[in-house]
Amino acid sequence: MSTIKGFSEETGISPYTLRYYEREGILLGVKRDPSGNRLYDEESLEWLNFILSLRMTGMPLSEIKQYVDLYKEGESTLRKRKQMMLDHKGKVEKNVAETLKYLETINYKLALYDFQEKGFTKMLP
Amino acid sequence: MSTIKGFSEETGISPYTLRYYEREGILLGVKRDPSGNRLYDEESLEWLNFILSLRMTGMPLSEIKQYVDLYKEGESTLRKRKQMMLDHKGKVEKNVAETLKYLETINYKLALYDFQEKGFTKMLP
DNA sequence: AAATACCTTACAGTATACTCTAATCCACGC
DNA sequence: GCGTGGATTAGAGTATACTGTAAGGTATTT
Fold this sequence. Notes:
The structure is a homodimer. Chain A is mainly alpha-helical. Chain A has helices spanning 4-11, 15-23, 42-55, 61-73, 78-117, and strands spanning 31-32, 38-39.
């Protein structure tokens, strides 16, 4: 059970962002103490970690919100949610493959620099 | 030698963005015809591809601009430019590793869905 | 009880990277 | 020679995801 400051420090997510996520309805499981202050526990930590794994792999907040809304509707949305995860997994894998392709271009550029350092001095990008 | 429309279609980058990149000084090698219209050739294509490989791997335009400015200064900046590429390569590789870690979380979630489909029906995120 | 340190809310501001609008210009076909 | 379709420019607008501010509340410490 941590306060917003503690939870922010534990997770590396700023209090602003934590409140923002909650306001937008994508961070569930946040409790309150008697005076209205936020309390974060294991449940909110799990949610946050899940949200972060979607966010950090490029899912926009609007789509994460859709997922969370489906979750709140209950078991009847299980299939849809699974499909969302499958689609997202596909996109992430495609994106990683693409990134690795672009990385090759960067490596090629680095090879040119090495080549140039060995005395070959034509100017290159 | 293509006009902005043709080049846009060839590369998939909108005319707006092509002009924007040029205005910001990150797309070099764009020529003009006698009446002032842009002409794109092999040189501009090479630049664009290079820029895109940086952009698509997450380098902000401001940093790409820095690189291009160094390039324009000539050979004296070779070492700096190489270092920028090395740093970026490191970041991209780190980011890919991180993404794959987050992908595992997503795969775990998918495994839970599979598990649930086989009759186990506790509600899960 | 005053100071402090944190919290709350609503809402405004910022950063990045486009994306579009408005006004104008230019070349080709009829 | 005039309309049509493209081009040009400067500058405004948009989207997303935060990030910060203002005004005030609460609780502990001195």
